[in-house]
């Protein structure tokens, strides 16, 4: 029961295009990796949402608790609180939304703590019996409660650690196929690293260079039934870099790039042989968390070879032929890339744009993003807009809003990263 529910929810949240059955001439077929609680991957803040969903190496803000907690060590503000809100999948329903309340506080030159609450409401669902009679009205929701800590090793390096509690109530405890459902619970951690060089020359202009790496959502599998049937969290690896150009005291430009990959087993190729579903390429995904992370780097099944009649080619030993190079090709298609730019004028007005790419066979999220930001004294507001490059994508016209409250020392943090 929970497998079908998780797959349906994941496909809905990230909206793979109905036309994305193959890469248009490629032998690879749609093979999306699904996990439990996919809302953990949704970009919550408007700044990164306007820059192609990048943020691993961006200058620090309270949103860094989602992207890269270690970057908080380089924040010039002593404290910041922000609230983000996004109506989600408005092409499908009007009552789905994501809210994110987050903040941090500097303890001293080396230590920063923070926390956040993320709440994802999936709108109202009406349950019925076999005859169509209404039995229950439920508003499924998921939430994440996070505590974070950042430690500054020296002027250029910092480490970060998050601990989080995840709660997912999708079914209201109804019984399905004789199995009692329940809310899913999980504990997880994020580990992050950052490097910042505040004294580099970039084409004749002063500037900053930053690099970040994170391992997110490392935790136990989650279950929605009393049966021993569990699903992976969306564990992922992100690498990011950012270059900031200080042209003068009024004009600052940042260019950032993020590369990410899910560290979750890829669904294998399965054929019905003698009435039994059999894995003919790839690996069994029913493994532990750590083996699954390692397996995710080499378990893509690739494309089975067909003969002139369109039938799969079987080897004498009973195995099936796989197209040469297709396994590596599929592994590479699991890498997602985002890039974006941000321009600040006088630390008051920001204009942003970006692009996010996910292969057609792995979900087909391909979109352009735009946004603006305004800052006045201790207040800031960001807005972002997403337009999909694929037809009939439920993410089309996604908008996000973020309100920020800067407390403590005030510095030029929005466009720059300066070590203490």
SSE map:
Elements lengths: L1 H13 L31 H4 L14 H4 L11 E9 L9 E10 L4 E11 L3 E4 L5 E5 L2 E12 L4 E13 L5 E2 L2 E2 L3 E19 L2 E15 L2 E2 L6 E2 L4 E11 L4 E12 L6 E5 L2 E6 L7 H7 L30 H8 L1 E11 L3 E9 L8 E11 L2 E10 L9 E10 L13
Antiparallel strand pairs: 1-2, 1-22, 2-3, 3-6, 4-5, 6-7, 7-10, 8-9, 10-11, 11-14, 12-13, 14-15, 15-18, 16-17, 18-19, 19-20, 20-21, 21-22
Describe the structure concisely.
The chain has 420 residues and is mostly beta strands. Helix content is 9%, strand content 45%.
Explain what this protein looks like in three dimensions.
The chain has 420 residues and is mainly β. Helix content is 9%, strand content 45%. The chain is built from 5 helices and 22 strands. The chain has a 14-stranded antiparallel beta barrel. Strands 4-5 form a two-stranded antiparallel sheet. A two-stranded antiparallel ribbon has the order 8-9. A hairpin with a 6-residue loop joins strand 12 and strand 13 (230-231). The protein is globular and about 70 Å long.
Distance between the termini: 52 Å
Uncertain runs are: 1-12, 14-26, 411-420
Rg calc: 23 Å
What is the helix content?
under 10%
Strand residues, percent: over 45%
Q: Average pLDDT across residues?
A: 87
Q: Give the topology string: H per helix, E per strand.
A: HHHEEEEEEEEEEEEEEEEEHHEEEEE
Lateral strand order in the biggest sheet: 1-2-3-6-7-10-11-14-15-18-19-20-21-22
In DSSP terms, counting alpha (H) and pi (I) runs of 4 or more, how many helices?
Answer: 5
Structural class: mainly beta
Number of strands: 22
């Amino acid at each position: 029961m929970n497998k079908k529910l998780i797959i349906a929810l994941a496909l809905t949240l990230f909206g793979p295009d109905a036309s994305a059955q193959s890469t248009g001439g490629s032998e690879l077929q749609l093979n999306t990796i699904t996990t439990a609680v996919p809302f953990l991957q949704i970009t919550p803040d408007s700044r990164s949402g306007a820059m192609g969903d990048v943020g691993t190496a961006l200058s620090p803000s309270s949103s860094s608790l989602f992207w890269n907690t270690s970057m908080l060590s380089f924040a010039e503000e002593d404290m910041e609180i922000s609230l983000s809100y996004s109506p989600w999948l408005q092409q499908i329903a009007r009552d789905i939304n994501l809210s994110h309340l987050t903040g941090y506080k500097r303890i001293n030159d080396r230590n920063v703590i923070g926390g956040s609450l993320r709440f994802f409401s999936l709108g109202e669902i009406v349950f019925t019996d076999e005859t169509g009679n209404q039995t229950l009205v439920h508003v499924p929701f998921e939430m994440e409660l996070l505590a974070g800590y950042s430690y500054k090793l020296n002027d250029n390096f910092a480490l970060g650690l998050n601990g989080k509690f995840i709660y997912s109530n999708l079914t209201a405890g109804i019984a399905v196929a004789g199995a009692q459902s329940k809310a899913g619970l999980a504990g997880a951690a994020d580990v992050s690293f950052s490097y910042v060089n505040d004294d580099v020359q970039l084409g004749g202009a002063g500037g900053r260079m930053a690099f970040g790496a994170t391992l997110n959502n490392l935790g136990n599998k989650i279950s929605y039934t009393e049966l021993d049937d569990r699903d992976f969290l969306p564990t992922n690896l992100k690498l990011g870099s950012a270059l900031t150009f200080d042209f003068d005291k009024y004009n600052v430009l940042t260019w950032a790039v993020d590369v990410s990959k899910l560290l979750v087993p890829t669904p294998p190729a399965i054929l019905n042989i003698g009435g039994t579903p059999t894995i003919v390429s790839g690996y069994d995904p029913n493994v532990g968390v750590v083996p699954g992370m390692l397996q995710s780097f080499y378990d893509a099944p690739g494309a089975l070879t067909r003969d002139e009649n369109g039938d799969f080619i079987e080897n004498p030993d009973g195995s099936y032929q796989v197209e040469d190079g297709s396994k590596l090709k599929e592994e590479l298609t699991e890498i997602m890339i985002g890039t974006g730019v941000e321009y600040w004028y006088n630390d008051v007005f920001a204009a942003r744009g970006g692009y996010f790419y996910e292969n057609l066979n792995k979900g087909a999220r391909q979109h352009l993003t735009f946004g603006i930001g305004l800052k006045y004294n201790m207040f800031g507001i960001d807005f972002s807009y997403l337009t999909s490059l694929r037809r009939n994508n439920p993410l089309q016209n996604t908008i996000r809003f973020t309100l920020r409250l800067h407390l403590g020392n005030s510095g030029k943090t929005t466009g720059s990263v300066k070590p203490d």
